[in-house]
Known about the structure:
Elements: E1 10-11, E2 30-32, H1 38-46, E3 51-53, H2 64-73, E4 77-80, E5 99-102, H3 109-122, E6 135-139, E7 143-149, E8 155-162, E9 168-172
Parallel strand pairs: 2-3, 2-4, 4-5, 5-6
Antiparallel strand pairs: 1-9, 6-7, 7-8, 8-9
Helix pairs in contact: 1-3
Amino acid sequence: MAFPKDREWHEFPLDKTLKMPRGPHKRLRFYADANVPEPIVVEFRAAGLSVLSARERGYARRSDQDLCQEARQHDRVLLTMDRDFWDDKKHPLQNSPGIIFLDLPPDQFGKAVDGLARFYFLFAKYYPLDWWDNMKARVSEYGFSIRMRTWEGKVSEEEYRLAESGKLLTRTIR
């Protein structure tokens, strides 16, 4: 099989999926921005995931910088529906505590939960908390993108989608 060209979709071999690394890694934990609907927080907790909610802590009106700082202080990845966090000019990747941007309207929390579940079981559960610095994810109903700094200091972005056949497809964005 030839290596695909940039932006060309190809199948991600599910038989070679990521495995949780060995060693003393911390399990992924979340800090939900106040704009994340409560049903999403409830669903995550029902699935056994650790979620700290800014809304429950009384932080409904925090600046973006304060939210990132709170997530970092509590050793969590920020879960948000605020598009500004995906913008590297507003929130540079190198300052990211780890951000998961849910790219769906807040009133579509059923679709949001489905998209987050796919993202978690295909990717996030294999990435321990200590690997999330300098990384962002954009989650939609049927797929997700991962943006991270490589070992060489460059920015890499990959997009993943589920095909109608049930296969996971991927392509390089940059």
